[in-house]
Design goal:
By secondary structure, this protein is mostly beta strands. It has one helix at residues 2-8, and strands at 22-30, 40-49, 53-62, 70-77. A hairpin with a 7-residue loop joins β3 (53-62) and β4 (70-77).
């Protein structure tokens, strides 16, 4: 999801970039179920931006709920 978001906004170039980002940590906590035909919204944010690393957090929301059904994170470094 993060790479798709970065690619769509031309913030990541898999062919021309001299650097490669490695995912070094991931995690997810589930709070409630989501099932078909629920509409799923995802929120993405950067919670830490270092000189060679980034931590992204994702929240998944079912239908019009304001409370996340799941929250996850990934840490990437170059």
């Amino acid at each position: 999801m993060v790479n798709a978001w970065l690619l769509e906004r031309k913030l990541l170039d898999l062919v021309e970039s001299p650097k490669v980002g490695l995912v070094v940590e991931t995690g997810c906590s589930y709070f409630s179920s989501i099932a078909f035909p629920d509409l799923v919204r995802a929120g993405l944010r950067v919670t830490r931006l270092g000189t060679s690393s980034v931590r992204y957090e994702v929240g998944l929301f079912a239908n019009d709920h304001d409370i996340a059904s799941a929250q996850g994170h990934s840490c990437t470094c170059t």
